[in-house]
Amino acid sequence: MAHSNEMTINLVVLGRTQTGKSAAGNSLLGSSDFESHCSPSSVTTCCSLGRSCRILGIIRRNGCELALRIQVLDTPSYPHSGLSKEQVRDTVRSALARHFGEEGLHLALLVLRADLPLCPDESDHAIQFTQELLGRTWKDFTAVLLTHADKAEEAGFCEEAYLHSASSTLLSLLTSVQNKYIFLDNQKSMRKEERAIVLRKLLNFIRQNNYQALPLLKD
Predict the structure, then answer these.
(1) What is the residue range of the signal peptide feature (predicted)?
(2) What whole-number percentage of the chain has pLDDT above 90?
């Protein structure tokens, strides 16, 4: 995970079509590695790995500043407009093993839209799919990324008010992952300061696992 003065964290983004998975990955990387645009069908059809440059000023350990690198695996959505569940699952599972098989996965980001209600069936499908990919300890290695947070703010919801009004389905999901969640406005370029805040939150989630990664079996 880390050299003497550098740390790399491995992330995967999961979620439904048009939740903003690829855009969120770009925001985390500070790049435009992943194709992301509005479409009547699923845009992402295969997995791709993006890597950030060295990021300074985010983390210190043992009194020393470390350079941070982010690796994000973008994935096809589930449900997908052109692929079956089995095709998506096998594609993602193979890519996880290929890219993170040696180092392991530090965090899966389950991407949901903050401006749309989470229905029980959607939550059940997302949980089942994530569990099939990551195994029984998926809750320890999963966080929820709530995208389109700007639209929730435009509707008058600050973070506290949003959670107070959220459905029991969403609140139950957040509880199951130990309230690891982040609100993200990925409709515009993230400023350096905003990105630093998000990355520090992710590192805090990873710290809860003592910086341990989820082992992944290679095919």
Answers:
(1) none
(2) 68
